[in-house]
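Problem 12. The chain below contains 81 residues. Write out its predicted structure in token notation.
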Amino acid sequence: MQAQPLTWTWEDRYYIRFKVIAWVSTFGGRATQFHQHGTYHITAPRRPNKDEIEWLKDADLSSSVQVPGYGTLQLPTEMSS
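Solution.
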């Protein structure tokens, strides 16, 4: 039996949009941006942990984070150049 996905809203202006999309896509989730500056409606199997949140806010597009059960998550090279 598969768990129901969680749905929540982030109203923080400091998340990096490309990273939010990459993180959510890793879990087959979905992110909808309501406003130009950081209000996201997220549907995913779980919320990000502390390290993942730090990565989502890190403006360095070449940074990476270890995601439990997945491995290293990093934006594609062409996005981080």
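Discussion. The first strand starts at residue 6 and ends at 10. Students who got a different answer should revisit the alignment rule from Section 12.3.
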